[in-house]
Amino acid sequence: MADRLVGKKALVTGAAQGLGAGIAMALACEGASVVLTDINPAGAEDTARRIDAECGPGRAFAARHDVTDEDDWKAALAFAQQRLGGLSVLVNNAGIVTMGSIEDLDLAEWRRAMAVNADSAFLGCKHALPLLRESQPGSIVNIASVSALIASHNLTAYNASKAALWMLTKSVALHCARKGWAIRCNSIHPTFVRTPLLDGIVGSHEDEASLAKLARQVPIGRIGEVADVAAAAVYLASDESAMMTASEIKLDGGMSAQ
Hints:
Blueprint: E1 9-13, H1 18-29, E2 33-38, H2 41-55, E3 60-64, H3 70-84, E4 89-92, H4 107-134, E5 138-143, H5 156-179, E6 183-190, H6 199-202, H7 208-215, H8 226-237, E7 248-251
Parallel strand pairs: 1-2, 1-4, 2-3, 4-5, 5-6, 6-7
């Protein structure tokens, strides 16, 4: 275990699998104590057990959490206060991919995408700020997407919801700066990453032929790995990024430069 995050107290949403699980593991193995939340509590518990086994006992705790529900947010943050003694890092990672053009989507699908990808982070930032103020310096890390920066004809809701998250990040950051709080807020924008979230796009994130097809859209010739995003989250959670706020880290292999 390294010590870049010793003393940090983090909450990671959508931590039962994929990016959330990888980010939570990376934060814990750098010294942070972590609450993992997910609508799948069994998955979050399993990830917490793996973190304790790899990074040290008593490092990780799990809770069921519907990130679109305001009362669930209040309960999750109260759980973090109880288990960790406060909060200094919030990672808004929970998200879904909703495929469809403007004509294909119905209103329910649009609203679901906005609720999970954007409303959830609004609620998290809003209700976490009182705890973060008590444990300054604090950091909010929002997991957005390259799809917030470049559009696709069949990702209408995903493009819009991740772009909303990108701008929310900047607004929260400027609010905290204006208040004089040592609380930073930044976003990470990955391209395709090898996680179960890709299943809605290619059918299976383990289908190497489909992944190779995606990789050909990325200038550096490969898709992302969980470790790529986790490393950026560790940096943003740490005091190494003390001068960075209202900014974005693009992990898109050059896609947004084309």
